[in-house]
Amino acid sequence: MIATQPDAGGHFGPYGGRYVPEVLMSPLEELQHTYEEARQDPAFHAELDLLLHTYAGRPTPLYHAKRLSEILGGAKLYIKREDLLHTGAHKINNCIGQALLARRMGKKRIIAETGAGQHGVATATVCALFGLDCTVYMGEEDMRRQRLNVFRMRLLGAKVEPVTNGSRTLKDAISEAMRDWVTNVSNTHYLLGSALGAHPYPAMVRDFHRVIGVEARQQILEAEGKLPDAVIACVGGGSNAIGIFHPFIEDDGVRLIGVEAGGRGPALGQHAARFEGGSPGVLQGTRSYLLQDDDGQISLTHSVSAGLDYASVGPEHALLHDLCRAEYGSCNDTDAVAAAVTLSRTEGIIPALESAHAVAAAIRLAPSHPGQTFIVNLSGRGDKDIDIYRENLPELDLR
Amino acid sequence: MTRIGQLFERLKAENRCGMIAYLTAGDPTPDATPGLVAALERGGADLIELGVPFSDPIADGPVIQLAGERALKAGTTLARVLEIAKEIRKTSEVPLLLFTYLNPALKYGFERLAHDAKAAGIDGCLLTDASVEEAGEYVKQMRAAGLDTVFLAAPTSTEARLKLVAEYSSGFVYMVSRTGITGEQQNISDSAIPLVERMRAHTDLPLAMGFGISTPEHVAAFVGKVEAVVVGSAIVRQIERDPAGVEEFMRELARPLGKTGAGAIS
Ligand SMILES: Cc1ncc(COP(=O)(O)O)c(C=O)c1O
């Protein structure tokens, strides 16, 4: 059987752990302690569940994508509609949970990193809701390509700090957020946005997103009377994927398929497919698969989708990969955009570019699997990506 | 005993506080580093921290971040830093501490690193982003090769953590003067001296104070309080502005320590 909880040091097999400067060790211990207390506290769960229901919009539907399934002529596709959540992506699940923890710890200032801007928007949203001071670090390149979300964060009252280091994307934003946290740790909670970083973040963020898989499992049993044959999700840091995978881990017959960003192609620097081009190492607090060179320097990455454009991946995915409990493949930029068009035109659902990677994998697999049932996690909606879709689909944009 | 242990014995005998100088190896080029180290030594540095540049230095402020970028651009790797150490050893017995983020060391391999570092004349190693909890195998390999392992203690560290840091450290313990990243500052943090007092309860090892120490006044404030002070960003900035002035800059910083460095005029 596969361990579904890390050990006391936050290790998932050889991965995970706590690799941070000493200044952060005691604060991480405090966070872990607060989280463990909260987990045992029925009042915490009651408040979290109520907010997820009345504020965020849970449960989200499991929708049978009938037309798309018919056109593909193979597997029956269901879509888990995280795109319908408040703020437009799964990210709000984790943000509500961590905001409640910040309040328990008496921390009035929140910092976060963001790539696609969805985690930044969700963080800015809960900070408005709880009256907390909010600073979001975002790479300059991501600010350019996810302009709309930058404005949403500011409208919600958050400060957006541009990060101009390195590739000016998610990795650099996380480094800058960690530097802020090291400096201001006494009054600040770092609301990390994926199942990444030092213990307890990977397990804690996963737990806050587990609700996706718990709902989906129950919903598919109601709809089909049996478990699905495969669950498919995109993997950036890995939070939406681990959230939907986790409740299915012990269901041996269910394939768990993670989709990474294949970018422009397999050369180092052109993609973010950590399981195809990476090797184990330590970055930003945790041990996992990394895109790195022979000297242990972290490589640049590329994806059309800012939320998948990251050199490392959550440590629990690294373990599931090594144990062959989950499979990881990739989808390139072009196929992701094409899948977004297909989903838009067959089902009337415009997906986020991140989620479009999972849709593309389902489109690729479905024809060869007639009689099977797949669940695709649609982690977010495409409104934030309209500018990128316009750039990539000039034929639709005749002005 | 490594050169680090010998240094602290000598400092004790001379009743003197030591000067530890950090520089990013390979900044601005790998060829420049041995000369800069010699200048720091002439200016009064007792121990040199050779920083290994890393692409994602989460514990460093802008000055050392930029130095790392320059060093990487100039082709500096961990293997190259060990060659630099060998070069320094041709003419100097100054204690050398390798100062690195974990991932380059992991990629190199702890056992191989311990062996090659020792052979290059390195005396000890410090990992910026490895907690003692994750450092078991690393400490084993370093100690087996006869190298010191220096760990950081921070104002946020609990008593239990200070005890662990003391247990895993050899040579000296590096005290982080404030909760923050590397970089110069106006005033010494209020948290520095209380940390020293707390740490003394857990260890007899020498204590070195660093982070933010950037003027002779800052240095003077720690005389009689710790066994050594560490200056980093201020030196790196001097190297960036005017490498020819490094020796004189070091001499000014070391003046409150009362050392007459080799070649010092005063
Ligand atoms: C809609 C959406 N899906 C997926 C991701 C990728 O993150 P993760 O792998 O943590 O789910 C993001 C990140 O920004 C996102 O906005």
Written account of the structure:
The complex is a heterodimer of chains A (399) and B (266). With 399 residues, chain A is of the alpha/beta class. Chain A has 15 helices and 14 strands. Chain A has a 6-stranded mixed β-sheet with strand order 3-4-14-9-10-13, with helices on both faces. A 4-stranded antiparallel β-sheet of chain A has the order 1-2-12-11. Chain A has a 4-stranded parallel β-sheet with strand order 7-6-5-8, with helices on both faces. In chain A, a hairpin with a 2-residue loop joins strand 1 and strand 2. In chain A, helix 9 crosses helix 10. The radius of gyration of chain A is 19 Å and the shape is globular. Chain A starts with 10 loop residues before the first strand and ends in a 7-residue tail after the last helix. Chain B is α/β, with parallel strands linked by helices. Chain B contains 12 helices and 9 strands. A 9-stranded parallel β-sheet of chain B has the order 5-4-3-2-1-9-8-7-6. In chain B, strand 4, helix 7 and strand 5 form a beta-alpha-beta unit. In chain B, helix 2 packs across helix 4, helix 2 runs parallel beside helix 12 and helix 4 runs parallel beside helix 6. Chain B is globular and about 40 Å long. In chain B, 59% of the residues are buried. Chains A and B meet through strand 2, helix 1, helix 8 and strand 11 of A and helix 5 and strand 6 of B. The structure holds pyridoxal-5'-phosphate (PLP). The site of pyridoxal-5'-phosphate (PLP) has 21 residues of chain A, from helix 5, helix 10 and helix 14. Pyridoxal-5'-phosphate binds next to helix 5, helix 10 and helix 14 of chain A.
